[in-house]
Amino acid sequence: VSAGPAGMGVAIKALCEAATAAVGRGNEILVISDRALGRTRAAIPALMALGAVHHHLVHAALRTRVALLVETGDMREVHHLCMLVGFGADAVYPYMAYAAIEDMKRTGDLECEDDVSVLLQRYRDALGKGALKVMAKMGISTLQSYKGAQVFEAVGIGKDVIDLCFSRCVSRIGGRNLEGFATTALRLHNTAFPAASLATTLLPPLPNYGEYHHRTGHGNEGHINDPEAIAMLQEAATANSRVAYANFSKAHDAQVKLGALRGKLRFVTTCTAVPIEEVEPASAIVKRFRTGAMSYGSISKEAHTTLAIAMNRMGAMSNSGEGGEDPERFTPMENGDSMRSSIKQVASGRFGVTIDYLSNADEIQIKMAQGAKPGEGGELPGWKVSESIAKTRKSTAGVGLISPPPHHDIYSIEDLAQLIFDLKNCNPKARVSVKLVAKLGVGVVAAGVAKCKADHILISGGDGGTGASRWTGIKHAGLCWELGLAETQQVLVANGLRGRVSVETDGQLRNGPDVVKAALLGAERFGFGTAPLITTGCIMMRKCHLNTCPVGIATQDPELRAKFKGQPEHLINYFFLVAEEVRTILASIGCRSLDEAIGRSDLLEADPEVAAFGLDLTPVTTSAFSLTDDVTRHENHKMYDQDHNLGSVLDVLLIQKLRKNIDEGSSARIEVPVTNLDRAVGVTLSHEVSKATNGQGLPDGTLHVRFAGSAGQTFGGWCAKGVTLELEGDANDYVGKGLSGGRVIVYPPKSSSFHPQRQIIIGNVALYGASSGSAFFCGTAAERFCVRNSGALAVVEGVGDHGCEYMTGGCVVVLGSTGRNFAAGMSGGTAFVVDADGSFRSKCNMGSVALELVTEQDDDVNLLHSVIEEHAAVTGSAVARTLLSEWPASLKTFVRVMPEDYKRVLAQRAAQSQALFAPVAEPELDSPPKSVTPPTRTATPSKVLDIEDVTAKVVKTRPSTVSRPIKRRGFIEYERGNAIPYRAPEERSQDFVEISAKRDEPMLTTQSARCMDCGVPFCQSQHSGCPLGNKIPEFNDLVHKNKWPEALERLLMTNNFPEFTGRVCPAPCEGACVLGIIDDAVSIKNIERSIIDRAFEEGWVIPQPPVFRTGKKVAVIGGGPAGMAAADQLNKAGHWVTVYERADRIGGLMMYGVPNMKADKELVVQRRVDLMAKEGVTWVTNSNVSGSEWFMTTDPPPTASAKQIAESSDAVLLATGATIARDLKIPGRDSAGIYLAMEFLHKNTKTLLDGGASAAKTATWLPDGSGPGLINAAGKRVVVIGGGDTGNDCIGTAVRHGAKSVVNFELLPQPSDTRSADNPWPQWPRIFRVDYGHQEVATRDGKDPREFLISSKEFLSNDKGHVTGVRTVRVEWTKDESGRWSMKEVEGSEQVFEADLVLLAMGFLGPDKAVSSELECSLDARGNYKAEYGKFSTDVKGVFAAGDCRRGQSLVVWAIAEGRGAARE
Asked: How far, in Å, CA of 64 to CA of 911, rounded?
């Protein structure tokens, strides 16, 4: 540690030399360990230490002599293990992870009965499975091959680190050097071993830095999708607000600058701008936009169709994703809209990829890989596979679906060219695109794809979202699109290929700068995924895989889907706002269209600050044109179409011969010769049939084409219903690929003498992705037969390896032997295999299936027999005839292959069918339902099949308290409850005891289960939610688990005084609660208060004075919440803190501004003051610094000098609050009986406290009806002018005094019961509320005390000068054309309200100026202490300001946040 950052490089080199010496001594195992760290020794990051030793030994030719074992506390996750093994580790011992598991078992964090050894083994198993998955997606089969392979690319790592630790690992743009990594390591070390001056008796709990879910907090991980950006984007989209969009774009740019490569690029400023009127219109720009490939299934039908409608209206393109599409969407809606996705994706799973699907595309996208999770296919859990989704995907409801990582018909670049050709034949008018991952070498791949005659290439970035993947698959996979796109543009241009293809990119594109930067790097199309979902309501819950999306987007639960509120207009608004911003930027850089900007990377330059990070962005900004002198290759965008040679295919002849029959639906039979040059035979014919019949196809056997010869690839691909293709001969690969209801028959020439069952008659990958129809093959199929078959019937006389892999439906009959790995990943359908020699079990992958004997009593025996009969009839198969002749004896040779999940679902369906005949109790309904839903809720996934099955609202009562609440669906299952209710108004209005009753802890446990643990918690957002950034999801979860001490730790990490905020805060966290979008918010405030109250009751809160003192002295002027919070933080840091307060008690607003019934002064406020005193804070009361004016004193002399305090202190914090009240200067203001609200409340509380603790508990606490300086409301007609908390407190206090009547004036109109359009979530909801004071008056007098839309014109008084009433007038508010509100009086509405006591509760104007004047601190335009925005230092050195005196009148929670921020600064 003493060597500082420069010491790491020296230590690593010494470690390498020690390793060499150890090998020289004959050691065969070296342990690289960081366990010897301590206060004076910091750990070298394990990966750097290992990499350096590994490469050092390799260079010394010693590596094969020794095994390297890494013993480290760094390794916790799968990625950590993969990195260590990938850089040469032979074994890893994660001692810290093991210790954490043991500790969680000991403390009860792991709620299970298993022994620690079992838990550790599970952890090891999970690491092993995760590593296996990583290896699989890299195409590596053995650990030996993976070890030391370094299959990584480094981003942001400097050359000195690469050379020393990761030799030959690619790091294209440089980055952080050794000293930078050492600085980070030392910072982490200092957290564990803090400097003596900062040490307290206990270390704080480990923070959650927001690695996986967004967590607000100083120094936490930044997320592009943070609460503020999401809120501003939704406001911009729903209200079509340019102002909100500008705010969003600015916030997004700030996050991009922190966390994305494009954030380090800026537009050059030397361009000659052009008038924006000359730039292409937004309507043309939006046509270049596309939504991401989000499948129906991963998102709901409502969300999926909304995206499609919006994009179609703009002439842009939506993407179906890999889940197919309901044919009903292909028909335009009555209003002219279309739900049809223009882009149809073809992924490895081939879900729903039928000829009808492909024929209804403007573009067909081959998904080679996904940028966010390269090497992995899509995955849909069984509970999200509803009947509708199963129908669309041609699978089984309730059975999970997974796309195999590779396309089984793409094992080479030639295979890709064939698939492009196939798809072009499926729909000659559609473009064919290929989706590639942004990674090193993608440019070369893209060049190959262009030569394969793709029309369009998508470079997909690693920042894209995916809602159904494990963190291992997406967190450390993929690369930023900026690198991949720049490389692609450069390679395509250099090779003269750019003009053949259009190029698109995606990966968290969200605003105009993103789009223009992508264009300058080479893109002409732009994919948006996350942002469109956010505009339609997504709030980034990151619970997509759990089927519990509360806004109805990433869920198939009908109850939640009904919550979807998105509209196409929202997305259209957003895209046009983006396009207008694009136009502005284009004009500024001198471009009149995006075509002019494409590939102009010379218009980008690196931000000057990148040099400080060691980054070199030349690989990104290098112009593609500079790489070749051949000007004929200087093409920056797609300029001409590819030639797919569609005019020469055999189907041109077939369509000519059958055109009339297709149009009329009449039968025809023709014969045509075929050769192996004829590829994709029957594909375009099926396309024409599908178009002519709107996807319905023709009656079976309508068109029968008989071929003779050897067919080329994809014979009978996507064969449509009504089409029969009969081939006498043989066929190459991909026979019947995507079979779509047609019939394919292949048998050997009748003149052949060989035995068909011993010969391969069709090639590899036959019937891949078949969805319906039938196929009969008299002979053996090669490898990968019927992969992903989802509904076709197939008979074959033998198959090679990997038969029926990933099959999800249909029936396959194999009348002969199979190869290895049969039925791997099979989840649906049935296979029958002849197992004459009993060897089949050894060839079958038993991971997901069971083998069953077939008997005559089985239901499907007749089906099997008829299928074999048909096979014999259409192919003349001798094998089939033999089996039939020996029937039923031959039946004993068959084995049924039955997927376990499929069998389970079939059994459930059978049970449900029987249950339909059982009597069902009628639920109570508001209106007649379409159908009956189950009357009770469960914690299991909904059994309702689709949203259309949801009935009219059933009257149900959800519990607010249960014995064992379940958190996953708690927000659905449980009603909001008030675990700390108010006492009855009749009782509480008779005393000043706290108004709340005893807390209900069982209810609190249930209420905490309603917290959804949001991926982006708005409740803790410092802009819309909690200003403190409280760890709300974390302490809610701990309360749910009954771990109250741990919840306390999390609460105190951000909030010094939760007993204050839990009582008086209006809970902006609840206003921003995500659950509040669809239901009542989580009762966060009650949970927060309960944690701290129980902590004090249990004795968990004890004085913890600093162990060490810095010797620094800090003076705090002002003893309110801001000053107290700052004092608490500074004292914990070891400084000596003195707080000066002008009142006789510490607490400020909490002591004298908030009445005792809201927060008990002795039991709550003074308790905290005393605790802080025991921890070392010095309180100085009755200290009127600089002699500020104050209603509690007359012509006050200064009791202390601000300058003297500053001179005797190392720093001064001004926390004097906003004490100058807003007055009402109207005629009669000088009448007696008119007071400022704070004077009334202060004197009331002081009288109460001076009367002793028992005074609060009795209604007769006022001695003889008066007190020292008391303003008594007893028997008086009280008028309170001004609402808010202070006005309500005046009402409640007057009631307790025994006021004769209480009226409350509010100038603004009565708020609505729900949010208005200009008050979107997550803003604080401006809705009508009834607080405790209002309720007490209404209970006593029978009427709410508030009068809205009323303005005070004059105070009336009697001849003694005492107020007798207030003359008022009613007002109305109107909005002018500019959107500004204006008020005018309503004629003839004058009214006089009688009054003996008037209290002015109209807010505060700022701090008293005495202190600022003495210290010569500047004030801002509002009269507050001036400090730089976001900071707390004034223009006087060593003087800081915090709280209401700096930011203006605000909440107690903001005051605490201000104090903490000032202390940090």
From this structure: 62
Measured between alpha carbons, how far is 141 from 148 in angstroms, rounded to an integer?
Answer: 14
Q: Is 773 left (phi over 0), alpha (psi -120 to 50) or beta?
A: left
Length in residues, the chain: 1465
Region of 249 (left: φ > 0; alpha: ψ -120 to 50; beta: rest) is: alpha
- Residue ranges of the alpha helices (H) in 109-154? 116-137, 143-146
Which strands sit side by side in the sheet containing 1211-1214, from one edge to the other? 1178-1180, 1136-1140, 1113-1117, 1211-1214, 1439-1441
Q: In the sheet where 91-93 sits, what is the strand order?
A: 29-33, 67-71, 91-93
Which residues are bridge partners to 1179 per DSSP? 1139
**Measuring CA to CA, how many Å separate 370 from each of 263, 458, 461, 473, 474?**
23, 10, 8, 11, 10
Strand, coil or helix: what is 1146? coil
Find the helix packing angle between 46-59 and 78-86, rounded to 10°: 20
The separation between CA 852 and the C-alpha centre of its own chain, rounded to angstroms, equals: 44
Please tell me whether the overall predicted TM-score, pTM, comes out greater than 0.85 for this model: yes
Mean pLDDT by 10 residues, the chain (1465 residues): 92 96 96 93 96 97 96 94 96 96 88 90 94 87 92 93 95 93 91 63 73 82 89 94 95 92 93 95 97 90 96 97 93 96 94 96 92 71 85 87 80 94 97 93 96 96 70 79 96 95 95 97 96 94 86 91 95 98 97 96 91 89 87 85 95 97 96 97 98 96 97 98 97 97 96 86 97 97 96 97 95 97 95 95 96 91 96 96 95 96 87 58 34 32 35 59 91 93 94 92 94 91 88 94 93 95 94 93 95 96 91 95 96 95 94 94 95 96 82 64 93 93 95 95 91 57 54 95 94 96 96 89 92 96 96 96 97 86 94 97 91 91 85 92 92 94 92
Task: Please tell me whether residue 455 adopts helix, strand or coil conformation.
Answer: coil
Q: Is 239 exposed, middle or buried (0-12, 13-18, 19+ CB in 10 A)?
A: middle
Answer for the pair 1006, 585: CB distance below 8 angstroms, yes or no. Answer: no
Phi, psi of 914, deg, nearest 5 = -65, -35
- Output the 3-class SS for 535-583: HCCCCCCCCHHHCCCCCCCCCCCHHHHCCCCCCHHHHHHHHHHHHHHHH
Structure tokens at 625: 């044109």
Residues with Cβ within 8 Å of residue 1410, at least 6 apart in sequence = 1185, 1186, 1187, 1188, 1189, 1198
Place of tokens 């049935």: 830
Structure tokens at 1017: 């918690």
User: Angle, nearest 10°, between helix axes 1332-1341 and 1284-1297?
Assistant: 40
Report the alpha-carbon distance of residue 74 to residue 95 in Å, rounded: 9
* Residue 708: burial class (beta carbons within 10 Å; 0-12, 13-18, 19+): middle
As a whole number of angstroms, the distance between CA 1279 and CA 896 comes to 86
DSSP 37: -
Phi-psi region of 999 (alpha: psi -120 to 50; beta: other; left: phi over 0): beta
Is the Cβ–Cβ distance between 1106 and 1130 less than 8 Å?
no
Helix (H, G, I), strand (E, B) or coil at 1178: strand
Token pair of 692 as six digits:
């002519």
Residue 535 vs residues 525, 1067, 1081: alpha-carbon distances, Å? 20, 26, 21
Q: Are 344 and 374 in contact (CB under 8 A)?
A: no
In angstroms, the CA 409 to CA 765 distance is: 6
- Distances 576 to 245, 273, 283, 583 between C-alpha atoms, Å: 11, 22, 7, 10
Q: Torsions phi, psi of 579, nearest 5?
A: -60, -40
